[in-house]
Automatic annotation (TrEMBL):
One of its GO terms (biological process) is ribosome biogenesis. The keyword Transmembrane applies. The chain crosses the membrane at residues 31-54, 85-107. This is NOC4L protein. InterPro entries: CCAAT-binding_factor, Noc4. It comes from Eurystomus gularis. The lineage of its organism: Eukaryota, Metazoa, Chordata, Craniata, Vertebrata.
Amino acid sequence: QLPTGLYKKVLVILHDSILPYMNEPTLMIDFLTVAYGIGGAISLLALNGLFILIHQHNLEYPDFYKKLYNLLDPSIYHVKYRARFFHLTDLFLSSSHLPAYLVAAFIKRLSRLALTAPPEALLMIIPFICNLFRRHPACKVLVHRPNGPQDMSEDPYIMEEEEPSESRALQSSLWEIQSLQNHYHPDVAKAAAVLNQSLSEMEDDISGLLELSAYELFDKEVKKKAIDVPLEFEQVRGLFGKKNDIFAEHFTLD
């Protein structure tokens, strides 16, 4: 049993400062699989080491995608290690051999969680979802279903289901992204509107968006050149500006 702080410190450096220098990196299988099962930030940090063991040392992990799917919760768009997590998730979902129901479940869960995500996370996750559609055309049924569910009450998708194959994602539609087309941030609304058109074959490069922060987003908006908009208005008279208001007889703005 390791303290949480020590767990995190070890897992952060494990993939590049420990595993490459071990004669038998497979000795870390038990440690990493246990860490991956703990949940929260520790599971996110264990992904890097697991990826190396799966990719380079032929580790077979039958429930890997199920656990990855269950790591997706509302906090995933706010955590410190968000960029690292989505970089690895992008790699894990890059194979064209993954079944459509699995990818659809990830798309649907990410979209549902996006309804409460901050703008800087949305500007990353919408291109991320578009890339998944490009890799897995069978999932486009989620977009091209005009008579599908229009809100959460009609949606057959089961958000609480831990098993992706039982979530009924392929029977649903992507009404969440349609809702984001009315987002208060114009860049988010513009990004979400891309799904109304045919997607290009070239994938979007999301590497520059993974670490986008609220500060950078705000700074970009502040530096935009303001456009003077002519306004026509009636001069305010009285306390509340209403015509024939009784307050106008007793209060003035002088």
